[in-house]
Specification:
Helix content: 10-25%
Structural class: alpha+beta
Strand content: 35-45%
Oligomer: single chain
Shape: globular
Distance between the termini: 6 Å
Radius of gyration: 15 Å
């Protein structure tokens, strides 16, 4: 169902994959996890490691899973499943069972959770975090995103595995 590849072999435009097609950020394990839609993030190299970085606001239910668990995944669906991803981005796992609501099929990948419908799943180990500090905003328009001062926490994850659908 999935084949492991090196991150450097991944085809596609990552900016489009995350900003236009969206992704699911999932933290936890197969026994207990939460997923949320993300349209911000990145993939690159930092500290001599292949990494991904994601942003989660403290009030999001996924935040507690990111804090508690060592691994997380980003699952990409190639623009498909927009309806399902919209639900995962607009509804809280505190209030609904997102899996039942969307029909997404979770799978265990190296102790983390991905989804059968995904085209790409990246498994990462959390290696750093940093709370966004508005004192560092050089562009004043950024403050408009944070009208209630609910600044994101940025997580950096070392890429451990990349899986593509076969």
């Amino acid at each position: 169902m999935f084949k492991e590849i090196n991150i450097k072999e991944l085809n596609g435009n990552f900016v489009k994959m995350i900003s236009e097609d969206w992704a699911l950020l999932t933290a936890g394990n197969s026994n207990c996890f939460n997923t949320m839609t993300v349209s911000w993030g990145g993939i690159g190299e930092l500290w001599g490691k292949d990494v991904g970085f994601v942003f989660v606001r403290p009030q999001r239910y996924t935040y507690r899973f990111m804090e508690k668990h060592e691994r997380f995944t980003l699952a990409f669906f190639g623009g498909e499943c927009k309806k399902e991803l919209s639900i995962c981005g607009s509804k809280s796992g505190r209030d609904i069972d997102k899996i039942a609501e969307t029909g997404l099929k979770p799978i265990s990948l190296d102790g983390a959770v991905g989804f059968e419908q995904a085209k790409v799943v990246i498994v990462m180990k959390k290696i750093a975090y940093q709370d966004i500090n508005p004192k560092g905003f050089l562009d004043p328009s950024i403050t408009e995103i944070y009208k209630t001062n609910d600044f994101h926490r940025a997580y950096v994850g070392e890429i451990e595995k990349v899986y593509i659908a076969e």
